[in-house]
Automatic annotation (TrEMBL):
Gene3D superfamilies linked: 3.40.50.2020
Function text: Purine salvage pathway enzyme that catalyzes the transfer of the ribosyl-5-phosphate group from 5-phospho-alpha-D-ribose 1-diphosphate (PRPP) to the N9 position of the 6-oxopurines hypoxanthine and guanine to form the corresponding ribonucleotides IMP (inosine 5'-monophosphate) and GMP (guanosine 5'-monophosphate), with the release of PPi.
Organism domain of life: Bacteria
Protein name, UniProt field: Hypoxanthine phosphoribosyltransferase
Annotated localization: Cytoplasm
Cofactor annotation: Mg(2+)
Length: 175
């Protein structure tokens, strides 16, 4: 099977949307410090590009939770493989996601972070696939709402490949 990628969101489109999101987040947090939290690895490109556009002081924090493995289907349970090294109690926390699909991963992650009593907890995602949702979770800020297709690039992978593409594309399999 040959893999072909059809561009869905160009690098320029994403860059413009990131700047808009940074402005919206400034309305939310003002000049207060924000602890950005991202789950490895998919959201890494988003956290970096968004952080560069944010005007308030931010810290970058990473967790590792298991999700898709090498397949394109969600397993349904998440497992914390690496936890935050910072205490978020009383802090402004912004979860930065690459994509919300079924929402299972994120729901668990959000519950975990809320249990640590942040001052404020908000969620931003680059992409949202609402057609796929099986649990009740909504992002406070969404870059793009996309149809139910498997996408790669801008941090998103298929079997660890394509994370470095500067755009988001739909992955097609062909004979
Ligand atoms: P759930 O289903 O828990 O899954 O919302 C979220 C995680 O699944 C991965 N995911 C994708 N990865 N292309 C990808 O490369 C996709 O279209 C896709 N949909 C879900 C991703 O890691 C996300 O954080
Ligand atoms: Mg992810």
């Amino acid at each position: 099977m040959k893999e072909r990628i059809e561009v869905l969101l160009s690098a320029e489109q994403i860059d413009r949307r990131m700047a808009e999101l940074a402005d919206e987040l400034y309305q939310e947090f003002g000049d207060e410090q924000v602890e950005l939290v991202c789950a490895l690895k998919g959201a890494v490109v988003t956290i970096v590009d968004l952080a560069k556009k944010m005007k308030m002081p931010v810290t970058m924090n990473f967790m590792s939770v298991s999700s898709y493995g090498n397949s394109t289907e969600s397993s349904g349970n998440i497992n914390i493989k690496m936890d935050l090294d910072a205490d978020i109690t009383g802090k402004n926390v912004l979860i930065v996601e690459d994509i919300i699909d079924t929402g299972r991963t994120l729901k668990k992650l959000k519950e975990l972070l809320i249990s640590r009593n942040p001052k404020k907890l908000k969620l931003v995602t680059l992409l949202d696939k609402p057609d796929r949702r099986v649990v009740d979770i909504k992002a406070d800020y969404t870059g793009f709402t996309i149809p139910d297709a498997f996408v790669v690039g801008y941090g998103l992978d298929y079997a660890q490949k394509y994370r470095n593409l500067p755009y988001v594309g739909v992955l097609h399999f062909e004979e």
